[in-house]
UniProtKB/TrEMBL annotation:
Start and end residues of each Reverse transcriptase domain: 206-478
PROSITE patterns xrefs: RT_POL (PS50878)
Keywords, comma-separated and alphabetical: Nucleotidyltransferase, RNA-directed DNA polymerase, Transferase
Domain of life: Eukaryota
Name recorded for this polypeptide: RNA-directed DNA polymerase from transposon X-element
GO molecular function terms attached to this record: RNA-directed DNA polymerase activity
Length: 777
């Protein structure tokens, strides 16, 4: 074994058995140093005492048992345990400790045993480890919070449903979903909907009237899904809870009634983006990053500190008694509260592995996994968290972020520490476990200000929160400058990995299958939260992102890896380049804002021109007021980029229907940049370059003489030489085509654009059109 000397040296003592004799080898210096992190833990536990023996004799000897795989990922937690419990010896095992291993098997004489079993992560065990409730944020605090929102007592009750509503829910069942423990598939309920609707309607209404949820629908079937790593380790499986289809129908009807009441009373926290209609991680990240940029730009270079909270098994540790009291404070009447209490209690689950069913196990706390009402109940459970925060709070279900801004970094540190302490007390009173070891903090600011003010520190009592230069929130990497570099590198790593996979299987699949795989496995990485990070990425990283997309395109189209790509290749599969795709997503988000299908905080974020002044102009009804920014950081914000793109759109696209927005913007990105017109009664073809020339200057070319056009293309046009012949060819084709053509409205010129070729004739308009892609810079 390996032992540590008092002077810090490490020696190795071994014994080898030879038959019946035992030979003791001499002690020798070990060449390789021992694990420095383990020594640091013991050194910190000793608190720098020079005499280790006297230290342990006065403070006592403690033995801490841990699995060896817990050392590196949980070094901070082990360090805290070593200090708080006065650990004298750390003992690591290769197997996880559980209830089958008794204390007598692992304890050592004269040592106090401290063990951290695998099952200590179970929700009920986490609740047992929480400190006693202080009562500061108890029932009276909840009542005060909702009384300020003028909530009526017993203002909400469940209503009976009609057969038409139940029939609609039955026909909307997803037949691909797994079957619950009752073995009644969704297909059966959907096919027999018209026959069984009266019976199911009677069951639902009886449940509402009696305030009782059927016990037979409370049993869940849990299937472990393999994630990664060793298949022999149960920690590498994700448990998936499957409920009965009939249970989900009842829950869906109840959910709609509760959601309608919450929306009418505006009770849910505005910046809670989880499990809500029209809300997503994209909208949360978009507003969060714009808030940080706005704080640093508008307030003239403030610091902005952010702390991201980590909750352990938040959904599984919800206290049923506290949840019921909060529902009562929200306005649920006694019958509705009784129904919810019946829905939560006496739930059981069985584990199904290869058809083998375990014995049912009771669920004492938490909201039901896999249920429709579970996420909504959790949102209501943490809805009053904002009442203890005087800083900005952004939520996506249990992913919470606290933000504080000020010109003085010390004020940011002190305020965040105070707010985090209040939040930790609220968590304790609500029986939620805050994992301080995984809670992270970051300080946003300019490079100069951060360099001049090093050493950001956030404390919760005596515990110091880990401060990082780059953090991941909702799957998006945010660095202290909001440069987007970390997220771009993450996207490149993921995309290149999947490009290699796509290349290996490309010879076995046709184009359609490859396109489907690429759209499902690769394109989402480019799209995710791109409005929050892409515009701040450096030019060379944008080029690498485009190069990665080009690789995918060549694999789909079966082109040589060095072949040139133009817009016709992208158009053949209906893709846009990365830059244009980001612009399209910006426009789609603004289009949703116009139609009100986004969170309220985004709708209030944009100002219409018509709301600022009453002058009737062409764009007053559809345009937005652009923000005034001077710095590059402000120009990277979603508000600035999206407003600039939207105000340049043609009027008909701004008025597009809600369902037509994405396709309309896709077509517009492929819109013409050259306009070829043949005036009525004339033989000459008019060629207008909307980029290189003002809208009033036209170039005329005929079949016999195209010198002006050739001169323009050769000397001053931004088009690549490969496009020139295509333009001339189309001009000559137009001059050969007989008949009269009506003039087509010109497109206003853009300041900068990157052009590529695609010759498509629009049959719907009576003119010849060349369509090119516009890549706005």
């Amino acid at each position: 074994m390996t032992v540590a000397d008092q002077d810090g040296g490490v020696r190795e003592r071994t014994e080898r058995g030879l038959g019946n004799a035992t030979v003791s080898l001499t002690e020798c210096k070990q060449r390789r140093k021992s694990e420095p992190q383990l020594c640091a833990v013991l050194e910190e536990a000793c608190m720098g005492e020079p005499n280790v023996d006297s230290f342990f004799s006065t403070r006592g000897l403690h033995l801490l048992h841990l699995n060896i795989r817990s050392l590196l990922p949980k070094i901070n937690e082990i360090r805290l345990l070593s200090i708080s419990n006065k650990v004298g010896l750390l003992c690591f095992t290769e197997t996880w400790l559980d209830d089958s291993i008794k204390d007598a098997e692992i304890e050592i004489e004269n040592y106090f045993l401290i063990r951290r079993d695998r099952n200590r992560k179970v929700a009920s065990k986490l609740v047992e480890k929480l400190p006693d409730q202080s009562g500061q944020y108890g029932e009276s605090h909840i009542l005060d919070f909702y009384s300020q929102q003028e909530v009526k007592v017993d203002g909400f009750s469940f209503q009976k449903v009609s057969e038409a509503v139940v029939l609609e829910r039955l026909k909307s069942l997803n037949i691909s979903k797994a079957t619950g423990f009752d073995n009644i598939p969704s297909r059966f309920l959907k096919d027999a909907a018209e026959v069984i609707t009266p019976c199911i309607t009677h069951i639902i209404n009886l449940s509402i009237v009696q305030g009782h949820f059927p016990n037979d629908l409370k049993l869940a079937r849990v299937i472990p899904l393999y994630k990664k790593g060793s298949k022999l380790d149960h920690g590498n499986y994700r448990p998936v809870s499957i409920l009965c289809s009939l249970s989900k129908i009842i829950e869906r009807i109840i959910y709609e009634q509760i959601d309608k009441y919450l929306a009418s009373q505006n009770l849910l926290y505005e910046f809670q983006s989880g499990f809500r209609k029209s809300h997503s991680t994209d909208t949360c990240l978009l507003y969060l990053t714009d808030y940080i940029r706005r704080v640093r730009v508008v307030d003239k270079g403030n610091f902005c500190g952010m702390v991201m909270l980590d909750l352990q098994k938040a959904f599984d540790t919800v206290d049923h008694g506290i949840l019921v009291r909060k529902l009562k404070a929200i306005g649920f009447n006694d019958l509705a509260v009784r129904w919810v209490r019946s829905f939560l209690k006496d739930r059981k689950q069985v584990v199904d592995i290869g058809g083998t069913i375990s014995e049912p196990q009771s669920i004492d706390c938490g909201v039901p996994q896999g249920s429709v009402l579970g996420p909504l109940f959790f949102l209501l459970y943490i809805n009053d968290l904002k009442s203890v925060c005087s800083c900005e709070l952004f939520l996506y279900a249990d992913d919470s972020a606290l933000l504080v801004s000020h010109k003085d970094k010390s004020i940011v540190e002190r305020t965040l520490s105070e707010e985090l302490l209040k939040v930790s007390r609220w968590m304790s009173d609500n029986r939620l476990s805050l994992h301080l070891g995984k809670t992270e903090a970051i300080l946003f600011g300019s490079k100069i200000k951060l360099k001049r003010s090093p050493g950001f520190k956030v404390l919760v009592g005596d515990h110091e929160i880990s401060v990082k230069d780059s953090v991941s929130y909702l799957g998006c990497v945010l660095d202290c400058h909001l440069s987007g570099v970390g997220q771009a590198q993450k996207v490149l790593a993921k995309v290149n990995q999947r490009v290699r996979f796509l290349a290996r299987i490309s010879s076995f699949l046709d184009r359609k299958a490859l396109l489907t795989l690429a759209s499902a496995l690769i394109q989402p990485y480019f799209d995710y939260a791109c409005c929050s990070w892409y515009k701040g990425v450096l030019k060379h990283l944008k080029l690498r992102l485009q190069t990665a997309q080009n690789k995918v395109l060549r694999i789909i189209l079966n082109l040589p890896m060095r072949s040139h790509l133009d817009i016709s290749h992208f158009e053949s599969i209906g893709w846009l380049k990365v830059e244009d795709r980001v612009s399209q997503i910006h426009l789609c988000m603004v289009h949703k804002i116009v139609h009100g299908v986004v969170p309220r905080y985004l709708i209030n974020y944009f100002d219409r021109v018509r709301d600022v002044h009453r002058y009737s102009t062409r764009g007053s009804s559809t345009d937005f007021v652009p923000p005034r920014v001077k710095s590059n950081l402000g120009k990277e914000s979603f508000l600035y980029v999206a407003t600039s793109l939207w105000n340049r759109l043609p009027g008909d696209l701004k008025l597009a229907q809600q369902s037509q927005g994405r396709n309309a913007f896709l077509s517009w990105k492929f819109k013409q940049h050259f306009t070829l017109r043949k005036e009525k009664g004339e033989k000459n073809i008019t060629v207008q370059c909307n980029l290189c020339l003002p809208a009033t200057n036209l170039l005329s070319a005929s079949k016999d003489s195209t010198s002006n056009l050739k001169k323009h293309l050769k000397l001053s046009c931004f088009f690549k030489p490969a496009i020139h012949s295509r333009v001339l060819q189309r001009a000559e084709m137009a001059s050969d085509d007989g008949g009269e053509r009506s003039a087509m409205p010109t497109i206003p010129p853009l300041k900068q654009a990157t052009l590529s070729t695609s010759a498509i004739t629009q049959k719907k308009v009576n003119s010849l059109v060349l369509e090119f892609i516009i890549a706005d810079v």
